[in-house]
Design goal:
Rossmann fold, 636 residues, five-stranded antiparallel β-sheet, eight-stranded mixed β-sheet
């Protein structure tokens, strides 16, 4: 896969099923237009492939109504426009817009009556984000808006921006009434998320910050509000940062949540499935061994149990949890899909279960659980499979990772790529970066050191208060396992990574620089003391992982050891990154240049922390070109 092959990648996303109708949205980067394209595709249950179901610029988040007659989805009509909610008949026809909201709509959720939809939307304060100061008046330009009065620490979010002046609110709309307008059910006191209808359709569940955001909190609770309007009421006081509630027919509620004490953040904690029966709260999955992956979607209730996606040693597996489970361990949960693969989304209708599944050499396919592959969206671009690596760290702890090899006998130059998080993972799913580097002739080593997700909560917690210790041991141990192969060149190794991976790149260059020819550090944390105040999450993240002592934070900061770095060093950052702000790059770059290091800096305008995954296609392609140029100069 070459950088210009980026626009040849078709990746399936959210899937929905009702009866014989299976719909999935797909996305393809369009580098020339600098936008993402893709519509909804219908997947044949007989394995006959797919047909385009919509042809707009970009459609996503399809949701089929309970009676199977309608499909609601989000549509982006032009580059830069916010997605709006649309509906169309399930047997085909014209789509009709249901919203025209200034900041767009969130994913729709059907009511049991197959008529009403619930969704969230950010509502701007008057005089901001294009909203006029007075109805019918002109909106001030961004540079003429009034100053923001900020009184809280949680006032902004990377890739979203300032939040307190545009809280997300809950809406419903009658999808079958052409004249209906969205009805607002919450007042914007704080942001709400993840709507779900009660089984009787009389109310909508949603998540909101504890006590409706009276103060900064790391806990979300489940609330309900009458669909006809009224005051929200608390349903469940949850054990942590709850996500994706689902109403049960008996009036109970399921939801995902890590468990953490009030006033503490959910740092490196497994996400469990919980059930509230109206009186008692019970954890249905084991705390240590089961880590639910919310990115794959909400839990889905079936007659045979609850479907959830679980992170497990680099895989994201579809598992079934009995509704009466008592903190069931991973080994006790039936595996349905995703073995040595990554489940991206899933849905069910009765006993029919479909899932979007990705592997290292396949961007994604739609599977009928128990019935095989329905269609394959895999790219026509040749992709390389991943080779599993196992070994042991110096203290005997088992280590795990992957190797993506280029074609040919070698010996190949090596790129060690460390993931972000740190409570994330490399895995069995498709990873465009590894494919691009392997196609250019580099063997790509992908370690999951202690601190990563999917290996038990203790594994994730192992680096709390200990960055730069056992995580470094594990990364280098996985690299050593790879370098035992005769087709890899131990004399030509580079190191790279983003976010926590950027931290690790800077740290390795300072403390183990003799092992590497050059380094590429991207959107990195380099100085915890300034990160604490400049990052959107810094006010809690630095203390949670490093501790509150400034002396300790500086001891865990790569910038403290900048004078030890001597290898050629590329510092890469996005101009609008609020997760790891630009100053993190600037401080390191200046220190390296002043020390005489062959250091360069690459800054992408208009991008945030997610550049490599969801940034503008043109910037993603330009970044790939720059990466390959860097390694061609230093690993030749």
């Amino acid at each position: 896969m070459r950088p210009d092959d980026l626009q040849s990648l078709t990746q399936p996303g959210s899937v929905s099923v009702r009866g014989d109708l299976v719909l999935v949205n797909v996305a393809t980067p369009d580098v020339a237009a600098n936008a993402y394209r893709g519509g909804l595709h219908r997947v044949a249950l007989d394995g006959g492939g797919t047909t385009s179901w919509t042809w707009a610029e970009r459609d996503l988040a399809p949701r089929i109504s309970p009676d199977g007659r309608w499909v609601a989805f989000l549509r982006v009509t032009a580059k830069g426009k916010a997605p709006q909610l649309h509906v169309m008949p399930a047997d085909g026809g014209e789509a009709r817009a249901l919203t025209d909201l200034r900041l767009g709509a969130g994913a729709p959720v059907w009511a049991p009556d197959s008529r009403r939809l619930a969704f969230t939307s950010r509502v701007p304060e008057a005089g901001r984000y294009g909203a006029p100061l007075v109805e019918g008046g002109d909106a001030p330009t961004p540079d003429a808006e009034a100053p923001r009065h900020i009184t809280r620490l949680d006032y902004r979010l990377d890739d979203v921006g300032f939040t307190a002046d545009r809280h997300a609110r809950l809406f419903t709309v009658d999808a079958l009434d052409a004249d209906a307008e969205p009805v607002e059910l919450t007042d914007g006191t704080c942001s709400v998320a993840d709507p779900a209808w009660t089984a009787d359709g009389e109310a909508v569940l949603f998540l909101a910050e504890r006590d409706f955001g009276a103060a900064e909190s790391f806990h979300n609770d489940v609330y309900r509000v009458p669909a006809a309007g009224g005051e929200p009421e608390l349903v469940v006081r949850t054990p942590g940062a709850a996500m994706l509630p689902v109403a049960l027919p008996d009036g109970g509620v399921l939801f995902y949540s890590p468990e953490h004490a009030p006033g503490t953040a959910a740092i490196a904690r497994n996400t469990s499935l919980w059930r509230f029966d109206g009186e008692h709260l019970a954890r249905l999955t084991d705390l240590e061994t089961v880590d639910c992956e919310k990115a794959a979607g909400a839990p889905v209730v079936t007659d045979a149990g609850v479907l959830v996606a679980v992170r497990n040693r680099g895989a994201v597996e579809l598992r079934r949890v009995p509704l009466d489970a008592d903190a069931a361990a991973l080994a006790d949960l039936e595996l349905l899909a995703g073995e040595r693969a990554e489940v991206k989304s899933f849905a069910a209708d009765g006993d029919r279960v479909v899932a979007v599944v990705s592997t290292s050499d396949n961007t994604g396919e739609v599977q009928l659980v128990g019935g095989g592959t329905l269609t394959d969206f895999g790219s026509t671009v040749p992709l390389r499979p991943a080779v599993e690596l196992t070994g042991a760290a110096p203290d005997g702890y088992p280590v795990h990772g992957w190797l993506v090899l280029p074609e040919g006998e070698g010996p190949h130059p090596v790129v060690l790529a460390v993931h972000g998080g740190p409570f994330m993972y490399h895995g069995w799913g498709f990873f465009d970066e590894a494919q691009v580097y392997a196609a250019a002739g580099y063997a790509v080593v992908l370690p999951n050191p202690r601190g990563s997700a999917g290996y038990g909560q203790a594994h994730g917690q192992a680096v709390v208060g200990g960055f730069g210790t056992v995580d470094v041991d594990d990364v280098l141990a996985v690299l050593d396992v790879a370098l035992e192969r005769p087709d890899l060149d131990a004399g030509r190794v580079g190191v790279m990574g983003g976010s926590y991976g950027g931290f690790m790149t800077s740290w390795l260059a300072a403390h183990h620089g003799e092992r590497f020819r050059a380094a590429w550090s991207e959107r990195a944390v380099n100085a915890w003391d300034s990160f604490a105040g400049s990052s959107d999450i810094g006010w809690f993240f630095a203390d949670a992982y490093c501790g509150p002592s400034l002396e300790t934070q500086r001891a865990m900061s790569p910038l403290t050891y900048a004078e030890k770095i001597s290898v050629p060093f590329m510092v890469v950052h996005s101009e609008h990154d609020w997760r790891c702000p630009l100053e993190q790059a600037q401080r390191l770059f200046v220190a390296l240049r002043r020390n005489g290091v062959e250091a360069e800096m690459l800054v992408f305008p208009g991008e945030g922390h997610e550049l490599t995954r969801s940034g503008k296609p043109r910037h993603r392609a330009q970044r790939f070109d720059a990466v390959l140029d860097w390694w061609s100069r230093h690993l030749a």
